[in-house]
Design brief:
Helix content is about 35%, strand content about 20%. It is α/β, with parallel strands linked by helices. Strand 1, helix 2 and strand 2 form a beta-alpha-beta unit. Helix 3 packs across helix 14 (about 345-350) and helix 15 packs across helix 16 (about 410-425).
Length: about 575
């Protein structure tokens, strides 16, 4: 039901929240539903780096998916990519959904085919040399008008095929007036943030008639306010990270860091899932009486969906590193979003999970829980509703650890978010928290909250961070961090078990000078990153330091806490 804007902003905001709450209890997914296709066509590109050809292919994929959603089509499009992992996902996807292949086609052959079938009604013209939001305006119009994206250098080819021009975006200024003119024709359950120089996710935007934008501006806030709370933000925005994650957080939206994802329309088809649960730690096998320093290493940036899709599973730096197993490594991940947006990617991840490796669900997406929905009415209710949906998917996937990325890890708003999630997440070992800057801003502090069964659930902040060329407290290269961890041995000898964890900056590179681990130039390609630097750090640890998966660490923390009277526990936060 559409609401005509006739009252104050407050009234509209209140109505939108009430409308959301009326249906939220029946919704488990915050990703749009993509209906199943019966046939799949492969689209081959002659020049992978040609943005014009990629945009055309993306629009074909999006229009085919849109036709399936509207019940007028039965053919989907898969855009061929050079990234090896997508071959694994395609094979698993076809097997799961039993989709039949109907051949490979170049972009212009598909244009002709879809013109004949009625998926394509014409073309939307744009000028790729502008490199601004005019291409995003064109993408929006492609979804509304069912037109393929044609750069002005391709227009003669489009005319030769008999296509008619549906819209000319070459001179469009995507401003507040433009948005207000067309927003009633768009789907407000998602937004796509697309860099004008990239083609990725235009297929998804067209398939679901989404608003597409790029940049941090007053218009962005207007768009975010219009998007329904608890909706996904597909893609990634421009400028400093906090600058564009903060407004999404404040409007109660879930960023997915998916700017380089490919084939989301097809991969997001749900149904016929055989859920492969990730391995977890059995707390009954933990010796809680053993006195030692217990420490975990947790890889950062797992909320990054595009990384998980294309550069993670088979990477020798990360999931496929030779030292996984020797180090009980823990990885933050976007498992919950994968369960809705790409179940086949999730299954590949689960089936290849290395021995002794633990997985942390990183927030259900990227947002700051202490800022979440602060611009909406009933912010706590929205966060609680989101926690309930996260809980459904954590139970399905078997993940037992939840992670937060906070603006201020010890703020009152962060503590309120911890309480909400503790009350809504069932059967978790515990939770971990990092601060946006610095990641170890909590310095290992633990915050205790109660679940619905009155159990004490820990939220353990990062104590140290492996981060190249950073010499702040508890930070730096593996040698510096090992020194910091080893200082806990003396504490352990007098006070009993010491538990803490290190966040590992996924992109930091290091080298070796003899036995010494050294930093290398920031943003360079020399040196190694990922799990190997953690292995180097482990080699420098005192023998009394035991490296364990973070899930085990949280269980140990709970066991240690359960033996203490309330008055002796570090911190207990209640309502």
């Amino acid at each position: 039901m559409k609401i005509k804007i006739i009252g104050s902003i407050f009234l509209v905001g209140w109505l939108s929240v009430c409308s959301f709450r009326a249906v939220a209890s029946t919704v488990e997914s915050w990703w749009p539903e993509q209906k199943k296709t019966d046939y799949i066509l492969k689209c081959t590109l002659s020049r992978y780096n040609d943005i014009r050809e990629m945009n055309l292919a993306q629009s074909l994929c999006g229009l085919a998916a849109q036709a399936v959603n509207e019940g007028i089509g039965e053919e989907g499009v898969w855009i061929e990519t050079r990234v090896e992992d997508y071959g694994l996902y395609y094979k698993a996807w076809r097997k799961r959904l039993k989709v039949r292949e109907s051949g490979s086609f170049d972009v212009w052959s598909l244009v002709k085919r879809f013109k004949d079938t009625g998926y394509v009604r014409g073309y939307v013209l744009y000028d790729c040399t502008r490199k601004d939001n005019s291409i995003n305006a064109a993408t929006v119009q492609a979804g509304i008008l069912k037109g393929v994206l044609i750069d002005k250098t391709q227009e003669e080819d489009a005319l030769r095929l008999g296509l008619v021009k549906l819209y000319d975006a070459c001179n469009v200024n995507l401003d507040e007036g433009w948005f207000n003119q067309y927003k009633s024709e768009l789907n407000n359950r998602l937004i796509v943030l697309a860099n004008p120089v990239a083609g990725n996710n235009r297929d998804y935007a067209i398939a679901h008639k989404a608003m597409v934008y790029y940049g941090v501006s007053p218009l962005l806030h207007s768009i975010l306010e219009w998007v329904r709370p608890l909706s996904p933000v597909i893609g990634w925005n421009s400028g400093p990270e906090f600058q564009h994650i903060e407004p999404c957080s404040r409007w109660g939206l879930i960023n997915t860091a998916s700017d380089w994802c490919m084939n989301l329309p097809m991969l997001s088809i749900r149904g016929n899932e055989k859920v492969v649960k990730l391995k977890s730690v059995n707390p009954k096998k933990i010796d809680a009486n053993e006195n030692a320093v217990y420490h975990s290493f947790v890889m950062s940036d797992g909320d990054n969906m595009q990384w998980t899709f294309g550069g993670f599973v088979n990477s020798p730096d990360y999931w496929n590193n030779m030292y996984n197993g020797d180090i009980p490594m823990s990885f933050t991940s976007c498992v919950v979003n994968l369960s809705m947006a790409a179940p086949d990617v999730l299954n590949v991840l689960a089936e290849s999970q290395p021995k002794n490796v633990s997985v942390v669900e990183y927030g259900g997406g990227y947002y700051y829980p202490d800022l979440f929905a602060s611009k909406r009415q009933n912010a706590d209710e929205l966060l609680r509703e989101f926690a309930r949906m996260v809980n459904v998917h954590m139970k399905k996937t078997g993940v037992k650890t939840f992670g937060f990325i906070c603006h201020k890890v010890d703020s009152d708003d962060a503590l309120r978010a911890y309480r909400i999630f503790a009350e809504e997440l069932e059967a978790v070992a515990g939770m971990i928290a990092v601060q946006y800057v610095p990641y170890n801003g909590g310095h290992g502090r633990v915050f205790w909250v109660k679940d619905r069964k009155n159990n004490d659930i820990p939220v353990l902040s990062a104590k140290t961070q492996i981060w190249a060329n950073l010499n702040t407290e508890g930070s730096g290269n593996p040698s510096r961090v090992a020194e910091a961890i080893n200082r806990d041995v003396e504490v352990c000898e007098t006070e009993g078990p010491v538990l803490g964890w290190t966040i590992v900056h996924a992109w930091s590179r290091f080298g070796k000078n003899g036995d010494k681990v050294i930093d290398v130039a920031a943003n360079g390609k020399k040196g190694v990153r990922g799990v190997t630097p953690v292995y180097w750090c482990k080699q420098l640890l005192n023998k009394k330091v035991k490296v364990v998966p973070v899930e085990e660490l949280l269980w140990r923390l709970r066991m240690k806490n359960d033996g203490k009277p309330v008055s002796e526990r570090e911190m207990v936060f209640s309502k």
